[in-house]
Amino acid sequence: MNIHEFQGKELLKRYGVAVLDGYVASTPEEAEEGAKKLPGPIYVVKSQIHAGGRGAGRFKDDPNGKGGVRLAKSVEEVKTNAAAMLGHVLVTKQTGPEGKQVNRLYIEAGCDIARELYVALLLDRETSRVVIMASTEGGMEIEEVAEHNPEKILKVHVDPATGVSGYHGRKLAFGLGLEGKQVNSFVKFVTALYQAYVELECAIVEINPLVVTKQGDVVALDAKVSFDDNALFRHKDLEALRDDTEMDPKELDAAKFELNYVALDGEIGCMVNGAGLAMSTMDIIKLYGSSPANFLDVGGTADAARVTEAFRIITSDPNVKAILVNIFGGIAKCDMIANGIVVASKNLDLQVPLVVRLEGTNVELGKKILAESGLKIIPADNLADAAQKVVAAVKGA
């Protein structure tokens, strides 16, 4: 689960992470009032959407204008910028061409920036430890740094038995070229960040940029915080921070039926049981010349009702030109899935080509149900055969 920058900063501040003062606003008047509470004379007006690259982004109705993060030199200018940003659609590298509407702003105090750095915490699955990453290339996309200058990314792993220590912070601080007061500030910052990461059961905490001020302080200028969904039942207060307006309506609908759905920009709808099999299915669709419209894992306990909901969500995407069902029957037996497919196809009056590949428990019975259904279902013998047939259906072959 992702949250907004202002929410992440509020949480991190509780753990002693240094952040700048700021106020949330949903109207130009609230933005003006927030600015009046800050010392000035420089203010920063930040769009609050679940996407990075806001500063370099552009608004749809003003593509040649300013981005989603703007400097203001007066309270009046804060209000003017707020009016130009709220209710408008911001397009960034991470939103896609459709962009996201800005419903909230964060009005933040300015600061004297001497350097911009990068720091992040996440789980390294190879070592089963939290890794703290840092780089001198703050303000840049870390993926680009990793590709072109991997030597500029520093890493330390934290043993969960002993936790973070001053050693971890100092090693990174010296690697970043910090000195004097800056080292102590950085060590304190990283220690607090680690505590927040562990206690809040985060998936990632990313500070980009982390700034060193001219006074030698280390401060989070931005904050990207996301949580492990599997741990949210222990954190009802965090779950309350979810912003449904930032989610794809189809993804929100899928969550109600315990379906793991992620919308993509392709043309072939996918319904698969098992995350690994779903990823393989998407890969092989790409291999044979098309692209998936979604990731959808119906889980191991899928029944007719869940299959029907899965089809309804898939077909609600106007870009879907064909559907590929790839099921390996186990707990969810092939005959049960087949019955669900038949019921869903009839109830929804399915109009796009449907390719089905079944394997596993009761597979022959499942295939018989599909063959005798009277529906125009295209059977497939294996995953490669299924992918070829669904791509051919999309291309009109």
Automatic annotation (TrEMBL):
Keyword Amino-acid biosynthesis carried by entry: no
Annotated Mg(2+) binding sites: 208, 222
Record-level GO cellular component terms: cytosol; succinate-CoA ligase complex
GO biological process: succinyl-CoA metabolic process; tricarboxylic acid cycle
One MF term in the entry's GO annotations: ATP binding
EC identifiers of the protein: 6.2.1.5
Record bears the keyword Lipid metabolism: no
Cofactor remark from the record: Binds 1 Mg(2+) ion per subunit.
Domain of life: Bacteria
Record keywords: ATP-binding, Ligase, Magnesium, Metal-binding, Nucleotide-binding, Tricarboxylic acid cycle
Residue span(s) of domain ATP-grasp: 9-55
Residues annotated as binding ATP: 46, 53-55, 108, 111, 116
Family annotation (Gene3D superfamilies): ATP-grasp fold, A domain (3.30.1490.20), ATP-grasp fold, B domain (3.30.470.20), Succinyl-CoA synthetase domains (3.40.50.261)
Cofactor(s) required for function per UniProt: Mg(2+)
Pfam families in UniProt: ATP-grasp_2, Ligase_CoA
Subunit structure: Heterotetramer of two alpha and two beta subunits.
Full protein name: Succinate--CoA ligase [ADP-forming] subunit beta
Source species: Rhodovarius crocodyli
